[in-house]
Each structure stands twice: as C-alpha cells, then as structure tokens.
Amino acid sequence: MQQFANPARFLKIANAALPYIWSITAILFAIGLYGALVTTPPDYQQGETVRIMYVHVPAAWLGLFIYCLMGFFSAVAFIYRHPLADAAAKTAAPLGAVFCFLALVTGSFWGKPMWGTWWAWGDARLTSMFILLLFYLGYMAVWSSIDEPTRAAAIARIVALVGVVNVFVVKFSVNWWNTLHQPASVIKMGGPSIDKSMLWALLTMAVAYTMLFLALHLVSMRSEIAARKLRQARLIEIGNR
Amino acid sequence: MLQQALALITRDIVLARKQGGGLGTAFGFILSVMVLIPLATGPDQILLSKLAPGMMWLALLLSVLLTADRMFQQDFEDGSLDIMAMGKLPFEIVTLAKTIAHWITVSLPLAIITPPLGLLMSLDISQLPILIVSMITGSLALSLLAAIGGAVTAGLRRGGLLVSLLVLPLYVPVLIFGVAASTASLGPSSSTPALIVLCAITLMSLIISPWACAAALKAYLR
Amino acid sequence: MPSSLPTSLRLKAENLSCERGGRLVFKDLSFELAAGELAALRGPNGAGKSSLLRLLAGLNTSISGRLNLEGGEADTTLAEQSHYIGHSEANKPALTVRENLVFWQKFLGGGENLKSLSAFNLEALADDQALLLSAGQKRRLALTRLAVAHRPVWLLDEPTVGLDAASLVILQNHIRDHLKNGGMVIAATHAELGLKSAVNIQLGKAA
Amino acid sequence: MDFSAAHVSYVIAAYSISAVCVIGLFLYVLLRDRALAAKLKQNAEKDTL
Fold this sequence. Notes:
- Chain A is mostly helical.
- Chain A has helices at about 5-40, 55-80, 85-115, 125-145, 150-180, 195-240.
- Chain A has a domain at about 55-180 and about 210-235.
- Chain A starts with 6 loop residues before the first helix and ends with a helix.
- The chains are: A mainly alpha (about 240), B mainly alpha (about 220), C alpha/beta (about 210), D mainly alpha (about 50).
C-alpha cells in the first residue's frame, strides 16, 4: 500500500463516468422489465413461470462472470503488484456473492413448479452455482480473517486464482455427475432454446444487470480507496505519536 | 536438489512417527464415522451397501481435511520455513516435499485402511479392489488440496474453519469422480473413465498446489 | 571454516526502505560491507532490525532501493549465500539434537559426516530430544547451524540472547574465524558483541 | 402478464426477492460510500487546521 498507485486517475474517470452508467442502467432496467413482464409472451409449456428466467439467467451469468473477473484482477495484481487490482477483486466479491445467491433463489423458485421440490439437485447448474457461492464465501472469509491488508491481499490473490480454475473443474464434474445419476430426459431449464420473441428482453436485462454491477463496483472501489486512505492516515498518526 | 527434498520428506516422516501426527486422530475419526453411519441410516443392508462407497469417500476426505491446518503451522511457527525459503531448493519443491510427506504419513495409510472397513457397511467384496485403487489415487489429490488450505491459513491462529470453507469446494470433483470410480458394478458405465478423470484431477492438483502453497507461505513469511 | 573465500566479496545496499503492517519501518538506508567485516545493527525495539535482516535473507522485499552481493558465487542470490539465525530456533522438539543437525546439514548441503556437533560443544546432548534442552542449549543448537554448512554471509538476530559467558566466547571465536576467512557478519545486538564492528547501522532514534 | 395463471406467485416471489436484494445492495454500497467520503473530508479538514 506504500506507493499506492495513484487512485486519482481512476477516481477522476470513475466520478466522470458514474452518472452516465447509472442513467444507462436505469433506462435498460425500465425497458428490460417492461419487456420481461408485459410484451413477451408466456411459454406454451411453462406458462407465466418462464418470466423468472429474466431475473434468473442474468444473475446466474453475472455470478460466474464476476468470479472470473476477480480471477483476472488477482492475476493482474499478482503479476504487476498493482494494489488497485487487489481492491477491485476485494470489492467485486460481495457483489458477485449477492448475484450468485439471487440466481440460486430465483432458480429454485423457477424449478419448484416443474419438479415440485424447493431444491432441485437434478439441475446441475443450480448445484454448481451453490458451490460457486461457497467459493465466494471462502474468498471473502480470507479478507475478513487476515487483519494486515498487504498480507490479506497476497493470500486473497492466490485463493481467487486457485478458485477460478477449480470453478470450471467443479462445473464439469457436477455436469458429469448429473448425467450419471439423471436419465437424460429431464426438461432443461428454460426449454431447449429461448425463442426470438423472449431473447431481446433477456439480453436487455442481462446488460442492465451488468451495468448495475459496473456502477456498484465503481462506487465500492471509491469507498475502498477512501477506507485505505483513512487507515493510512491513522497509521501515520500512531507512527509519529 | 532431490537429495535435499528427500531429506525433508524423511525428516517429516520421522517426525510424524515420533509425534503421532495426524494419522491417529484421522483414523479414529474414520472409525467413528463408520460406526455412526449404520446407526444413523438403520441396519437395512441394501441401503447400506449402496451408501458404502460414498460414505467411505466422505469419511476419508473429511479426515484428511482434519489434518490440513497443521501441515505447515509447526514449521512456520518455529522458523524452519524461513530457512527453507532461503535455500537453493525452490520453495515450491519444499512445499511439495512436505505435502508428499503428509500424503505418505496420513492420506495413503487412510486410503488403504478405509476400504476393508466397508465390510462394516456390507460392502460386497467385488468392489474392494477398485475402491482401494481409486482411494489411493484420490488420496494424493486430497493431500495436495489440503496443503493449499493449510498454507493459506498457516499464519492464522483460528484457521480451522477457514480451511474447511476453502478446501471442501476444491474436494467436490475428487469426491464425485472418486465415488464414481469406486462404484464399478453399480454405475451404468464401467469405472475406468471415472478413474482416468480422477487421475487427471490429481495431476492438476499436483501442478496447482505447490505454486499456491509457496506463494501463500511467502506472504506469511514477509 | 574450510575453504577460504573470494576476498572480493562486497555487499552494497542503496537507500533501502521497508514497510511492515502498512507502516514505514525504515527509509533510505544505505551501507556497504566488504569481506572480513562485521556490521553491528543497533536501534530500539521496533526500529526494523529484524525487518532488515529478513530483507537481506530474501524473506522480505524492500519498497525502494537496491541490494546486491558482488563477488559471490555466480548467479546465486544473497539469500542462498547466507545463514539466518532468527529469534525462533527452527529446531524440532520431538527430534534429538543429532537428528535436527543431520537434517539441516543435508538440507543446507553441508556434506555427509556430522562435524558440527562440536561447534558449540553439544556432543554430550547429541542424543537427547531437543524438547529437554534449556533455553541456552536450544540457542546453541540454533547457532550450530552456522557450522553445518558453509555460507559467506551470516545474518544474526540478537545471537547473544540466552547464552552463558562460555558460549558467548565460543560465538565470538566463530565470528572472528569467519571474518578472518573473508566472510561477512551482520548482527543485530543490544549487548556488545565484544568485537570491533567495521560498519555500524543505526536504525530509528539513537537509543 | 396474466396474473391469474398457475404458479404466478412464484414469479412475483422471484421478482420481489430480486428487487429486495438489488435495492438492498444499492443502498448498502451508496451509504457506505457516503459515510466514508464524509469521514475522509472531515479528516482532511482536521489536518489543515
């Protein structure tokens, strides 16, 4: 944290971009929700419950995307020793965990009518999403259980890098496990393929979620930088007392 | 280079033998699990024999996890790791050597002792050989992944909980393919594809674990 | 000490600064040490003596400045050419004195036959478990690591702690011989080592 | 959206839980940012006194 890469440049860009990002997010959510709830037709098989897809799929996609992003930030921090990259990974984790949790909850709401159970082990994606949540909790636990920031950053980097590799190994093995125990006839979540009339709403919602994450992430980064400056100030104060 | 690594492995084995190390507690843990499961599920033979491979893998996995947070802690606290990090021997080889010593003293014996205990759960004899083979392969992966958990929490006083939260998700693939490989006759496909993937996972852990442990321990040595 | 050392050995440090726990421990520290010289490292507690020694031992990285050892063996780092005796003694209580030393000898590449037992006359304790040793004896076992294998640079963190008068004399002789042979010693001490130090590194406010 | 269809309660539940989480996250992040910015400014003023 010593020669803290000057956050000024980052803060300048972030503060300039944030208003635009918030407004784009709001517009996209308006269009997406309107599309999801009103204009798109119900599914001939599932009826209205297909509308859950518009909140489930973006959250699930974002849950995985953010974890990969954390892996990328950790790799950058590991190679270039860039403290800002550590802050980016650290602040992205809680956001990713919330979206991952959201995907789990909406997923089980969606599966309930079809399988009649609240937790459908049958669907491999829900299971690997659950394990992804554990990866998030493990990563966040590293930050909270190591008090000294530079050391916590070094350990968190490794946990994220090891995690990113294993998330895909877990996805592969859960899918394989699913085909082993599950006869292939199970209805795939969201039907064989999403027909065109629903696709545009889903894409809008996905972009809206991503912009929401981007905005929240920039704001969290700003507060993380502020928190570090406060911590640094207190240390110097203690130092020359 | 190799001679130094062997010196480290032999020292750790001698140390484990003298100090009792993790094997005693881990074996006690497996025995109690083996007794508790039939009590929990009831004496119904067919159910037990169906559950047996899965439960034994779970017992093996959890018992190796029990010894994870002590793997590097002793050497970290008494300063040996400082000296080992300075030597010509790359630190990744040091952590790998310690992990192999842990495998030989804890995971391997457990992987050999556990299958015969399956008879407690009316496991049919035909499954025993394949169970031992898959457990031995899997036990190396278990040690390598436990080492990552151990290294990441080496400097923490109460790292036990964090180790399980970090390592159990890593164990998911080992558990899935381990059990699949050991349920040869029951599963639709024969066990060899699962065994091959299990070996692949073990090899992957062999590459990731030394790097991760060395990097994590260096962060604590700073 | 077996072979004589290349006398052209020279350790150069230019404006090193080190950070620990988010705080700057010392800043712009420069010093030079030639073969056969002792550097005494002084300063109050928390002034960064251990941080500097760990920095030289390659366990810690400095934020700025440069550090290199000229004239040592080709392409080996400073850490690989130095012994580091820190506060913690790096001995296994469950192993006997001999087993501890045999391990360190093999690990640090010090050849086969165990000749280091006599360095701090631990022959009598050779087969006792390190567990049973007194604090002073444990200290001597740690210092014996200096004799287990050959390293030109010695990094000693308060080596005199817990030593009785006789052992202190033995330590001084070892250091004197090492310096005569063209080695270097950097020792952080509060009590006087009783040896002329060519270089004095003062960290933090003068005590 | 036909509100009398079967299982419509699940759809409502899914959307409301999503709304609650997103808005909760939004508030948490914004409030934390505002609090820290304020403390930082106050800290800066204290130094210049």
